[in-house]
Amino acid sequence: MADFAPPRFDAWYSYAELTDYLQQVQSARPDQCRLRSIGKTPEDRHIWLLEVADFSAGDTDSRPAFLVHANIHAKELAGTTSSLKLIWDLLGSAPEGIDTAALLREVVVYIIPRLNPDGAEFALTTGGEIRSRMDEIREPNCLYQADVDGDGAIVDMRIERPDGTWKPLEDDPRILVPREPTDHEGTFYAVYPEGLIADWDGGEFRRCARSHDFNRNWPANWHQEHEQGGAGDYPFSEPEMRAIADFVYAHENIFGILGFHCGCSAILMPPSTGTVDDIPRADLAIFRELGTRAAELTDLTLLPTIDYRSADQPPVALRGHSADWGYQHLGLFHFEVEQGNIYNAAGVSTQDYFAAGSGARPGFQKDAIRYHDEHPDYGIFVDWHEVEHPQLGPVEIGGFRKFWMINPSFENLRDTIAPGSSRFILEYCRRRPRLVISEIDATAVASEVYRIRARVMNDGGFATNITERALKLRSLKPVRVSLSLHDGMELLSNALHRQIGHLAPHARSGELEWFIRAEPGGEVTLHATSQRAGVVEQTITLP
């Protein structure tokens, strides 16, 4: 029985609680996990990465590796919990039918449970609006988020005005809906984030913040912010993004990546721009095969990212997106698990949400309010209440805590999404490319002359190149084979070091052959190295 606790599914983890949990895991399993910081945030928090492997089996950098990252978007706290569920399945209590001990002797799993700890801490402790990072600009007449009423939550602020563009929903006045063009009578509101105004001169004020979206900061198809909101100044401009980039590019053994997100529940695959016809057919078939399995295990729907949209919207075009970076730049099958949101928690399916289009959103807001009423202890919604604003006078403050709008229910996360996602990752890892030496022998052909023959095999379910796309990348290295001779031995034919290209799943190389001069009883060692399928060696004694 594990001597650290399984992750909880009744509250979201703060940075301090996450750090404590990871340290407990490392203390309980020092031979199977190593906790490291891959960088620091602008607010001086560590970006934790847990490396999980059987360290007694040798160097982990030479084993196939899988990378999981979560909580790149500040409010999407469920990804952290799902990452901890994966850690529990690897080190605490393995899912039925999966031998995690055997898996960890051959595979290393890198887990970043919270890529954006600054943003997550703001979202969790204030409930305010944030994508990944929010730069609050305090220029004259700029509204910035602040807890005006001192209740510990930053929600919305509404001011009754005849030119207001929002009105209360007749069935439930807690809900605000857009004013119709024909609405001339009634109560109308201007709505702002709860906050204060910098150097206000008494006139019009505006929201001036700059919003960063780290999932538009990857280099694949990156566009400037006037073309792609939240993109940042340049690819990997944000320190959190540079930290994961530096780690990934320093670990060429990574053969697969999965990112945890929150939103209308779905399994997302590339492309994020263009069409699926941009993906070679062989890769597209594997994307669909893997994604279909993920969908089965999580009860989610597989979608290309371009189709993750409402029926009344054009195809999505996300520039600088992680899935395209993982596939186009690394040549990997990269998936994102969108774990759900409050609408899914309230019983609205992703299919119904997208099919209804934007015009049906007021009805979905009623579902969200109902879910709040059924779970009052969660504090999802703050009832509207009048407050004397220090600058604006009487205002009303209330609305949804923003992070609650973008996370699944604890029940769905605990019962289906987190365990299903974890099992998918473990099955993905079991399919890894796997380099083995399938044959090796030495035959005497003359006095002290030997012929060495060998074959190398990929015994895994992915090609050693992983994708067809990867074959176009300069960074991809072919499978290499080398023969090590001891002192006094002489190579008579062929090079000691050879490149043999790439191997398909469950495929062997052609026969490799060397002639050497050596005395009987000597030993030679064959080494085989694959960037993503591992390193193996075998020694034979000359007859």
List the helices and strands and how they pair.
Elements: H1 15-28, E1 33-40, E2 46-52, E3 65-70, H2 78-91, H3 100-106, E4 108-112, H4 117-126, E5 133-135, E6 142-145, E7 156-160, E8 166-168, E9 176-178, E10 189-193, E11 195-198, E12 206-207, E13 210-212, H5 239-249, E14 254-261, E15 263-269, H6 281-298, E16 302-304, H7 322-329, E17 333-340, H8 342-345, H9 350-356, H10 361-374, E18 381-389, E19 393-400, H11 410-430, E20 435-446, E21 449-458, E22 480-485, E23 490-493, E24 497-499, E25 507-508, E26 512-517, E27 523-530, E28 534-541
Parallel strand pairs: 3-4, 3-14, 6-12, 14-17, 15-16
Antiparallel strand pairs: 1-2, 2-4, 5-13, 6-11, 7-10, 7-19, 8-9, 15-17, 18-19, 20-21, 21-25, 21-26, 22-24, 22-27, 23-26, 27-28
Helix pairs in contact: 2-11, 6-11
State the gist of this model.
With about 550 residues, the chain is an alpha+beta fold.
Radius of gyration: 28 Å
* Count of helix runs: 11
Give the overall form. Answer: elongated
Portion of residues within helices: 10-25%
CATH H-tier superfamily of the largest domain: Zn peptidases
Number of domains: 3
Q: Compute the average pLDDT.
A: 95
Which strand-content bin applies to the residues? 25-35%
Instruction: Find the count of extended strands (DSSP E, 2+ residues).
Output: 28
Strand order of the largest sheet: 1-2-4-3-14-17-15-16
Largest sheet: 8 strands, mixed
CATH architecture identity of the largest domain: 3-Layer(aba) Sandwich
Oligomer state equals single chain
